[in-house]
Amino acid sequence: MDGPRHSLEDPDYAAFAWGRFRRILWWMSGVALLAAIVAEATLYWSMGELYLVTAIATFFGVFLTVMLAAALMGLMFLSSGSGHDAEVEDLLKDEVEID
């Protein structure tokens, strides 16, 4: 396998890749918002009325957790798709394992 044809060093491909990453994050912000609303509704249904601080902390906790996961996964896909993973040099590939 020759590796990816594109790299983030190419300005046109970098603009495309980062645009795709931002588009994914926008979609995931909607998913995170929906997850936070469902979490709030579930807590309200199971526990009744919540204190304002509890509701705010739950909302932001769920929202930010989903967004953090989305950002990290998006960066992983960006790195893999742009060839950065293939460019990593294994400095220990010539080392002989001694038992």
Count of strand segments: 0
Which secondary-structure class do the elements indicate?
A: mainly alpha
Helical proportion, percent range:
55-70%
The separation of the N and C termini measures: 32 Å
Question: What's the Cα radius of gyration?
Answer: 21 Å
Q: How large is the count of helical segments?
A: 2
Largest sheet: none
Uncertain residue ranges: none
3D shape: elongated
- What is the subunit organization of this protein? single chain
How would you state the average pLDDT, rounded? 85
Order of helices and strands: HH
Beta-sheet strand percentage? under 5%
Task: Report on the architecture of this protein.
With 99 residues, this protein is mostly helical. It has a domain at 26-82. The protein is 69% helix and 0% strand. The chain has helices spanning 11-47, 52-82. The two termini are 32 Å apart. The mean pLDDT is 85. The chain crosses the membrane at residues 24-45, 51-78. Keywords: Membrane, Transmembrane, Transmembrane helix.
Descriptors:
mainly alpha; 0% strand; 69% helix; 99 residues
What can be said about this structure in brief?
This protein has 99 residues and is mostly helical. The chain contains two helices and no strands.
